[in-house]
Amino acid sequence: MREIRIGKNEENQRIDKFLRKYMAKASLGFIYKMIRKKSIKVNGNKIDNDYILKYGDAIQLYLKEDTIESFIENREVRKIKRTFQIVYEDDYLLLVNKPYGLLVHGDSQEKKNTLINQVTGYLYAKGEYDPKSEKTFVPASVNRLDRNTSGIVIIGKNYETVQNLNQMIREKHHIRKFYLTVVKGQVKSCGELKGYLLKDERGNKVKIAEKEENGKDIHTMYRPLKTNKDYSLLEVEIITGRTHQIRLHLSAIGHPIVGDPKYGDKSINQVMKKKFGLENQFLHAYRISFEKCMGNLKYLEGKTFEAPLPQRLKEIEQSLFSER
């Protein structure tokens, strides 16, 4: 029998979710079966799958030790060169400026050099995170950027912070997220875009529907900062944060982002590649504003943080909008 004591980084989550992280190689069906058969208890008592763990709870696993060990993934901190910049940091969270070309989380092609792995390595070196002393917690991002979108990513350093950040993001306008982008054509006035996002399995894309039709609502605001007859520099605020939302919404109104290989204009993309070497979307998450904060993050209320355009995008902006 193994006993697990619940600490601050494990409390306030369902036991089935905790156990799926603790025994990552075990199926959810197996975990449910063990709970049902009373092979997993809390404080010596039978519990349901949705039991919410409390600080100080003791989980008893009435399983063979080698069985438990076979289900646990070896978590180690990888030594990777740090390529992100720090925008802001305190005891609870980290705001980083992610460069383009870096995945936030791993995929089938890249599992090692990711933003999260770089962050855990950074925090490990500072003595703020050690996987050997944590039962399940890993520093986590609460907003995601595409591989080739640069800008601010919010990282929670402990479970309470991650919970509060996730709740603040779910509550619209608690955390406001702004982007800078250059699009095709002249945009003369501010705009508001709404619709529903549907997955399009062909080419790993998404598309917009005017009616819900099993899609997720998307809401985007934009305002022009600079414009000429060919291009416009926009500030974009996302009210919802869906996959490819900005890229798709702007393309749908005839103003695709320059350099965007999925939703962009091929002829303009060729010009951008030839003239500037740009092979990805001109999109940068440049500002985060904490409007209303919860729990241990109340001190952030009213604060705004910015990450300037990367030099390569700044040079493109200056060239496109210089006086002719």
TrEMBL record:
<dbReference type="GO" id="GO:0000455">
    <property type="term" value="P:enzyme-directed rRNA pseudouridine synthesis"/>
</dbReference>
<dbReference type="InterPro" id="IPR006224">
    <property type="entry name" value="PsdUridine_synth_RluA-like_CS"/>
</dbReference>
<comment type="similarity">
    <text>Belongs to the pseudouridine synthase RluA family.</text>
</comment>
<feature type="domain" description="RNA-binding S4">
    <location>
        <begin position="13"/>
        <end position="73"/>
    </location>
</feature>
<dbReference type="GO" id="GO:0003723">
    <property type="term" value="F:RNA binding"/>
</dbReference>
<dbReference type="Pfam" id="PF01479">
    <property type="entry name" value="S4"/>
</dbReference>
<dbReference type="InterPro" id="IPR020103">
    <property type="entry name" value="PsdUridine_synth_cat_dom_sf"/>
</dbReference>
<dbReference type="InterPro" id="IPR006225">
    <property type="entry name" value="PsdUridine_synth_RluC/D"/>
</dbReference>
<feature type="active site">
    <location>
        <position position="146"/>
    </location>
</feature>
<dbReference type="GO" id="GO:0120159">
    <property type="term" value="F:rRNA pseudouridine synthase activity"/>
</dbReference>
<dbReference type="InterPro" id="IPR006145">
    <property type="entry name" value="PsdUridine_synth_RsuA/RluA"/>
</dbReference>
<dbReference type="InterPro" id="IPR002942">
    <property type="entry name" value="S4_RNA-bd"/>
</dbReference>
<comment type="function">
    <text>Responsible for synthesis of pseudouridine from uracil.</text>
</comment>
<dbReference type="InterPro" id="IPR050188">
    <property type="entry name" value="RluA_PseudoU_synthase"/>
</dbReference>
<protein>
    <recommendedName>
        <fullName>Pseudouridine synthase</fullName>
        <ecNumber>5.4.99.-</ecNumber>
    </recommendedName>
</protein>
<dbReference type="InterPro" id="IPR036986">
    <property type="entry name" value="S4_RNA-bd_sf"/>
</dbReference>
<dbReference type="Pfam" id="PF00849">
    <property type="entry name" value="PseudoU_synth_2"/>
</dbReference>
<keyword id="KW-0694">RNA-binding</keyword>
<keyword id="KW-0413">Isomerase</keyword>
